[in-house]
Amino acid sequence: MEFMDVVRKRKSVRKYKKDAVPKDMILKVLEAARLAPSAANRQPWHFIVVTDADTKAKMELSPWAAEAPVVIVGCADSTASPSWYLNDLMIAFEHLVLAATDLGLGTCWMGRMGRDEKLKEVLGIPANVKVVAITPLGYPDEEPAGRPRKSLEEFVHWGHF
Ligand SMILES: Cc1cc2nc3c(=O)[nH]c(=O)nc-3n(C[C@H](O)[C@H](O)[C@H](O)COP(=O)(O)O)c2cc1C
Fold first, then answer.
1. What residue spans of 103-151 are helical by DSSP H?
2. How far is the centre of ligand 1, averaged over its atoms, from the C-alpha of 27 (Å)?
3. What is the pLDDT of residues 136-145, one digit of tens each?
4. Cα(99)–Cα(36) distance, rounded to whole angstroms?
5. pTM for the full model?
């Protein structure tokens, strides 16, 4: 797909088919994350791919998210890049999300900042690794209407604010 078509097609999907996602597709979206830029190239990210139903049930996700065949938890090692770990993870996560869109898969960004202790326990995430974002991954079972966006005139400032 053309890049701008991928960008336009991506929408937050909150209803998924039960069909399993082939492992090679999961690997492709992870490869897109792997190639993301990061401050000083420290690549502080970790991605946990969860497909087990019991584990998903323990993650305290919204029911629609837990029903997706795959849930990907994006984490970052705050000691590996103390100033930039959040930025780096989020950039890599968006690479992953756009790659999923290109493959016809649905995703939905979910921020988890500050309420992840139970999740860290369930997934065995070490103390220095922060959960930053989560997305379900699967074949969409809905076609979400696009949410509104500001016009360029509302946020682009040519030369000065
Ligand atoms: C950092 C971040 C956190 C989000 N957290 C949630 C969330 O917890 N639950 C949810 O349903 N959607 C969440 N969203 C999705 C937004 O609601 C969605 O991106 C926005 O409304 C625009 O809609 P669209 O993604 O379909 O274009 C989040 C998005 C971002 C970028």
1. 117-123
2. 23
3. 999 999 999 9
4. 12
5. 0.97
